[in-house]
Amino acid sequence: MAKISLNVDGKSHSIDADGDMPLLYALRDDLGLRNPKFGCGLAQCGACTVLVDGEPVRSCITPVDSLSSSKITTLAGLGGGKAHKIQEAFIAEEVPQCGYCLNGWLMTAAAFLEKTPKPSDAQIRDALSGLKCRCGTHVAILRAVKRAALA
What's residue 119's pLDDT? Predict the structure, then answer.
């Protein structure tokens, strides 16, 4: 066990953990956050996605000791206290069904739109290609990302 410092949603935290513990466990178990979800545990579904220095990262396979100088953003911190434009677009397009996968889609889309503010449909599909939604809301998700890009 070691003292690990994490900057999550603009706040500094110190936890006692093994350095190779996945970030997801630190966020959920040590910090009590509920928005990154445990999906597959293999970085294949995206439900655990957070932003690390603005890049989408699968927290289920990211060791906490690799993040001491990084800025970690969860869905709770995405809009800085208010709804982010991607969250507003998901609501407007009535995307949510079960909601389990939304964390991954929202975090990945937010990072993508930050780098590509005026994306084509093909770019949107490509950027989101590694995410899974078992409810089949993919078409609504694509519409929501397009809406957010135009906002």
Answer: 98
